[in-house]
Amino acid sequence: MRTRKEHSTGSAPSPTSAPSVPPPRWAVRAAQLITLLTLPTGLWRLAMVCGFPSGHTEAGFVPFDTPGSKLWMLTLSVACELLALLSLGLVRPWGETVPHWIPVIGGRPVRPLAAVVPAAAGALALTAIWAAMPLWWMYPHADMTPTGRLLVGVIYQPLVLWGPLLGAVTFSYYRRTKGSRTAHTNAVVTRERCNRIRTHGHRRCSWSQRVIHRVTGHVREERTSRRSGRPPRSNVRDPGKETREGVVRARFHQRR
Fold first, then answer.
1. What is the three-class DSSP state of 97?
2. pLDDT of amino acid 250
3. Dihedral pair phi/psi, residue 57, rounded to 5°
4. Is 39 left (phi over 0), alpha (psi -120 to 50) or beta?
5. What is the pTM of this model?
6. Which of 55, 120, 186, 233 holds its CA 20 to 30 A away from the CA of 244?
7. Mind spelling out the 3-state secondary structure of 32-87?
8. End-to-end distance of the chain based on CA atoms, in angstroms?
9. Distance CA 36, CA 148 (A)
10. CA gap 204, 118 in Å, rounded
């Protein structure tokens, strides 16, 4: 039988142990696809960082052959890939609970809006940035060769899907976390109510058992003293001095 302390401290789960609804398969596939969309353009920029024209003419490649331009292209490639990898947090456990190796906030649950708002804003921004990319071939590019113009148009087209896919995964994350946390809150409230009822019931049953045991002990002691003609033992407490036991004893004698 569980004690009152066990009922009060060991019943309600912690916020970090909130039940998590698994993401749908299409959301997982979409998040994984986002990480692949930026790879072609990242490799194309890294090739220019290494000194390859990558489809540019000799005159068109001159502005990209400077230390500042190479540093910018390298930073841009790494930043784009990291942002794409962040979308995996919307379908992974570390998107709902901060990893323990992160100082100060490690192990704490992630508030849904703290992930939904930046992700939704990023989805809108990416959709607006790459919306005109399908029109790439309608504009002249004098600094590129015909082959380079075709190559760049092909490898940049997948970025059009980045914003919509991120928006869909963000919406799935919002629905999933909202439903799981609502269900968790209802479960905690229901569990606390049940524990409160069990605790009070245990106290009521244990008190009544103690009182009944004392009253029946007094009755047995009185019967024994009447039969043997000796006074009752002095170490037996007078139930009349205790209000609850006196009431129970009076009712017990009335039923007799």
1. strand
2. 64
3. -75, 170
4. alpha
5. 0.62
6. 233
7. HHHHHHCHHHHHHHHHHHCCCCCCECHHHHHHHCCHHHHHHHHHHHHHHHHHHHHH
8. 33
9. 21
10. 53
